[in-house]
Write a structure and sequence with these properties.
Blueprint lengths: L10 H6 L27 H6 L16 H14 L3 E5 L2 H12 L5 E5 L4 H13 L3 E5 L4 H7 L4 E7 L11 H10 L3 E5 L23 E5 L13 E5 L2 H13 L6 H10 L3 H19 L5 E5 L9 H8 L12 E7 L4 H10 L4 E2 L9 E5 L15 E7 L5 H16 L2
Parallel strand pairs: 2-3, 2-4, 4-5, 5-6, 10-11
Antiparallel strand pairs: 1-7, 6-7, 8-9, 9-12, 11-12
Length: 411
Amino acid sequence: MPGMKEHDTDLVTRIVHHDYAPPVGFVAPQPGVYKASTVIFPNVAAMRSREWKDKSGYTYGLHGTPTTFILEERLCTLEGGLQCVLVPSGLAAIANVALALLKPGDEVLIPDNAYGPGKDLANGELARFGITHALFDPLDPADLAARITRATKLVWLEAPGSVTMEFPDLCEQVRICRARCVTTALDNTWGSGLAFAPFDLLGDGTLGVDISAHALTKYPSGGGDVLMGSVMTRDPALHMKIKLTHMRLGLGVGANDAEAVLRSLPSIGLRYRAHDEAARVLAQWMQQQPAIAQVLHPALAGSPGHEHWRALCGAGHAGQGAAAGLFSVMVDARYTQDQIDVFCDSLRLFKLGYSWGGPMSLVVPYQLASMRSRPGAHLRPGTLVRFSIGLESVDDLRQDLQQAMARAFAA
């Protein structure tokens, strides 16, 4: 240690304050992993002057490290944003936005088919804070327009809707909100920055959402082993509101989780397309099965909102359009809930589990009546089952579906 002889200090002290630093110039395909709560300053002047808000310096682990800064910037490249904060989950991203932008007396509008825990947040904590909410029909832009009031300060959008997979006229929804000077926030987990550009919906820079919230747990992670979310913006003032609330709430992510997402990001395009292609093959096959009354997949003609998906996402993947590896089916109403449960339990490769975007295919049966405020005339009678398609062989997955349907729905 400078100014002290080695024998003047205890061995443990010498280990803690060891002088060695590795030489600069080490470069590898993956960025370094920096784990820190405490950040060391060279002097008091640096401690007083260093700024974390604009990423020009480091002050404390919660406010960013080289690892998290790199991930934020790469996610901005993925989705087309300019600023990003990382949070512990997709739901935390939704909460961060709400708590940053809403105050008592404000109202938030949410599509009826939105991610369920986000609606629970509005019913719970937001309601206790004096923030009201209303649900709108995601397939009827006029319903959204009619529900916007002077109290409406935020509108959530989701494309497609959770579980039932309706694809809204996202461009028209954004136009309506922009005309009323209402902030829009999109749950962009399904699109992931690959199906469409949330901040540039028309491709000419004239129309886009204000905020993109993303559950990085899904496709950016890709392994089914990371919980993380992000909130992204293009507007500096809006970003600062979100970032300061993020700081005051003490939100942060672990360096190893950030590392895991950084490792997966280079393959997200390949994985997304593989999930997409497999899901379409299986969804089309399910359309031919006698037990299935309806298949819900935005890329399939006849699925609710297909024309809006085609308009927004149809140019991707060499004109085939881009879509995630999710679809749902309505099992015909003649089958009982017990038979639906037998079908799900009989699947061998599809595992029962929430979430999606990982290598393993998943299945979940839903009680749709408990999830929607109004019945959808576009949905056929029956019981809804959602599939998340992983990276297994499509033929193997098809055989698995076939044997489970034979066991559950045989005459």
